[in-house]
């Protein structure tokens, strides 16, 4: 026999959601502070681009989200086509965790497949787009380059 599910917005589910949000709030605030600080201090959000000058597999996700919010789906897909599958994964998690009230196993597999495909897509973009086509551009003002420049200069230490 199939288990009957209670209505989607019952008190128990709302309490569970509020509890989960409370537990995640410190992490969300730390991420917001980090992103704001990185943007204010370095003009970049991506630690890989700041440290190494190269984009990471997630590069373009922020721009894709902004473009999607503006209604530019095509531009969003050009910057990083994995935003939409990742958002769909979030909906899958919410459905599995709060509606079906079970551990989000399907979500875990889905996200693992998305991450694998993002890495494959990253390698392809690096091969064909790097370093000339956004978001796969090289950032010459990175910390690694700065470190090597300081170490190479005579009398630096």
UniProtKB/TrEMBL annotation:
InterPro entries: DUF2752
Keywords: Membrane, Transmembrane, Transmembrane helix
Transmembrane segments: 77-95, 107-124
Listed name of the protein: DUF2752 domain-containing protein
């Amino acid at each position: 026999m199939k288990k009957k599910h209670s209505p989607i917005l019952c008190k128990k589910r709302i309490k569970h959601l509020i509890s989960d949000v409370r537990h995640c709030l410190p992490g969300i605030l730390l991420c917001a502070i980090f992103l704001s600080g990185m943007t204010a201090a370095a003009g970049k959000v991506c630690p890989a681009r700041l440290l190494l000058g190269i984009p990471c597999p997630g590069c373009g996700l922020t721009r894709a989200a902004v473009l999607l919010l503006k209604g530019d789906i095509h531009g969003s897909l050009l910057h990083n086509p994995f935003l939409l599958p990742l958002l769909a994964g979030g909906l899958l998690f919410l459905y599995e965790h709060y509606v079906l009230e079970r551990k989000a196993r399907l979500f875990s597999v889905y996200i693992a497949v998305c991450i694998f495909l993002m890495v494959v897509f990253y390698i392809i973009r690096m091969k064909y787009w790097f370093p000339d086509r956004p978001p796969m551009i090289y950032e010459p003002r990175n910390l690694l380059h700065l470190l090597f420049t300081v170490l190479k200069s005579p009398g630096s230490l």
